[in-house]
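Thread title: Can someone regenerate the structure for this chain?

I was given the following input by a collaborator and told the matching structure tokens would be attached. They weren't. Posting the sequence so someone can regenerate them.
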Amino acid sequence: MGINKIYKNRRGIALVEVIAALGISVVVITSLVSLSLYSLRSSLQSKLQLQGTQLAKREMELLRAYRERSDSSWQIFINSIRGCYGSSPCCINTQTLTVQNGQCSEGIGAEVINRYFTISKISGGQAEETDDMVRATVTASWTIGGEPKNTYLYTDFTNWNLGN
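Best answer:
Regenerated them for you:
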């Protein structure tokens, strides 16, 4: 009888050990899944930050190219962009190299990045036709996990070719 009693007690201990091992396994697996999700989100956030910065730089270069077009004088340039102020942003159409009202979007799904620029006086306020110097602020924006993110670039444009 003594042997059967010991054997029965060990079966119960084995069951407790299995349940404890399962509990520990669930905690470890949950932690690993959580870590993986955090890593994926951080990776996506870094990727979008890099892409947003690249798109902002490209928008700035497109704006410079638009300014330097051979058929464009400072007056034509300033008149075509001075309405891009405050809550009325514009972007450069990459196909036609023209200014269009609103934002331009690139990407698909969770990786959509909006790019746009605004123009103002150096001292603030809306640019005027007679200004020989304006500030361009380029913004690239996206949303990750319901949280808006942005990157900004700015430069000053001057009427360096006063003959035009």
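The mean pLDDT is 86.
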